[in-house]
């Protein structure tokens, strides 16, 4: 399937792909997932609907790949030598403005993910699982270094803690997530739960 998807997309230049992704994300912010149609994307990007379906197969894959395109380099590229350093590096990958935009996008898509099986599956396959695997590698390194006990029960919830902080910041505090908020949350909540000294 991935091979097929790669073959499908290889006909579009990286510049054109980036332009299409930006247009999709703009539409998402403006009207929400349910109102985004392949017709609307085709009109906004001066593309044919047939080309869009040939390249991405459908709206769900196009939307998730557009979101994935906004993510800074993979977590796998981060290896500072300590878990605290790695987590702070992840929190520092995006500036506060981009983080606020991404949080708004996630809020716009939260309901749609629960109501659309194809979108939920695309999220799981293209965003959640790859990131979870990268986090698992980061945790294995920390365990191998002796920073975390392999039987620490909080290990299974580390990603939940991080995503929860990001997703609920606006809901609880009426403020966007920021680097300062996430790094202080990592030191105050995540590292103590994992038994890692915060400094």
Structure overview:
With about 200 residues, the protein is an all-alpha fold. It is built from ten helices and no strands. The chain has helices at about 1-10, 15-30, 40-45, 50-55, 60-70, 85-90, 95-115, 115-145, 160-175, 180-195. Helix 5 (about 60-70) packs parallel to helix 8 (about 115-145). The protein is elongated. The termini are far apart.
Task: List the defining traits of the structure above.
199 residues, mainly alpha, 71% helix, 0% strand
Question: Can you give me a brief rundown of this structure?
Answer:
The chain has 199 residues and is mainly alpha-helical. The protein has helices at residues 2-9, 14-31, 38-45, 49-56, 59-69, 83-91, 96-115, 117-144, 158-173, 179-194.
Mean pLDDT: 86
Shape annotation:
elongated
**Rounded to an integer, what's the Rg over CA atoms?**
18 Å
Helix content class:
over 70%
* Unreliable residue stretches: 1-10
Let me know the number of strands: 0
**Computed structural class:** mainly alpha
Give the H and E element order: HHHHHHHHHH
Largest sheet: none
Q: What is the overall number of helices?
A: 10
Percent in strands: under 5%
**Head-to-tail CA distance between termini:** 44 Å
